[in-house]
Write the structure tokens for this entry.
Amino acid sequence: LDGDGYGDDNGLVIACSPPDPSYVNEGFDCDDTDPLVFPYQGCPGTDCGFFYGVEWGDCSPGSYCDNGVCLPCEDLDGDGFTSCDGDCNDNDPNVYPGAIEGCNGLIDNNCDGSLGGPTGNEVYSPDWTAQSTDGQTVTLFGLLAQGRTVILDLFAAWCVPSQQMLTSNFLQDWNMHMGPSGTDQVRIVQAAVDQSAGSVTPFISAAQWPVIVQDAEDLALLYASIGMFDNAVPTLLMICPDRKVTRLFPQPDVLPYTGAFIYDPVAAASLVDAGCACNLIPCLTNIGCMDQSSCNYDPAANCPGPCVSAIEYFQDNDGDGFGSVSLGTFCSQPNNSAINGGDCDDNNPFIVPFSEEICGNGIDENCDGQVDEDCPCVPGTVEPCTGSDIGACDPGTRTCQFDGTWGFCEGEIGPISEFCDGIDNDCNGLVDDDPIDGLTWFRDVDGDGYGTNNETVTACTAPLGYVDNALDCDDSDPDINPGAPEACNTIDDDCDGQVDDGFDLATDTQNCGGCGIQCPPGFTCAAGQCVE
């Protein structure tokens, strides 16, 4: 019928040919309405792996059947449990068998098929006042607000066991009767009107938990107000921090009580754990508003409901959200107040903790005890700029502006061409070196006060070995220069371009016909010849 090539055995027909096109010669289809279900593919159900000619079979442990195929179980949320292990939501790591049940009534955390939280059938205790053994007055809600579990024990003093309280054999049985112990529990027991509180002294001294002794009639009134007092002994009530009441003895013995105590500590511990399991859940740590110091104190509050504590407020005159003087703690915010303190000027809304510091005004805007901290500079401060201060150069100075930032450099003097003024104008560390208005000086090798063009320098003053002229025609001989006298020696001694000028070799008897040729005495020079 589904066209998958396999038919339902219930429609078997034996014939030589198919009665119509809807018949095939292969059977064993366990669902002939679904073309995806056929032999070899598998049939859904608790059994897996139905194949043609093969028996039905179960998947091995740690696997499950998916459309006829056994697949391994996987822990998808990493909580240590798979769907094969009973994890009812393998996508939530807080949901698995054995998990702590939540108190919101929305999620089945422990996969037991029930939701945690109030069911509407819980019994809650009203507040109640007791007188402790040390004379202090305590309230039931006050104890619960501390996160304690309170055990109420109405043990009628007129019963036979009460007459045995001073016997040593009774103490062990009594302590067992009191149920699970722990520092988070407080026991409230009764003493008969006609007996002193001292009658329970042996019990108190042997107990391993805090004990409050209360008059029997007053304790009975609390039982009656709870509605779980049935005049039975022993009647042991447990009040959890969420005010929920549980009776630890669902079927207590009925008066007159003459036999030994019948008490199952394991069962009682289970009741305590089950009844107060919500104490382990964060949503119930404040147990409503039974704390009388809370702002929304409500003796009738049920689990859950966080208490709102009073908040300290500060006088806020400038409305900037910060104050300076504490007004104390309040449940509602007073006028002109803030929840933040630390305002160092409550008359200026711009002066407030964590605000941006304004540089240069000498005011601590952010109330951290510092003025102009983190500002680049203090306004009015002057400092040298970075640069050269060699010679006539000066980098100038910069002044801190009113907003605490540095201004531009002013008065800067940079290097210029060197002049003959006794100042290092080009700021190279040398004074009057290579000046643009300097004089040219000539090298005077022979030191006769005259130089040549062969070697010159430009300077403001003559360097050693230099002169201000280039008139020397032979700077290797100090006797040859423009100031030297001309001698008859075939040399231009005075550098005037002429040799032996001023001498008449034709008539000079000292240089007749040539320098240094002297005529004998009595002779004259004529035409360069000595004649007698």
The mean pLDDT is 75. Residues 310-371 form one domain. The helical segments are 140-145, 160-163, 168-177, 201-206, 216-226, 265-275. DSSP finds six helices and 19 strands in the chain.
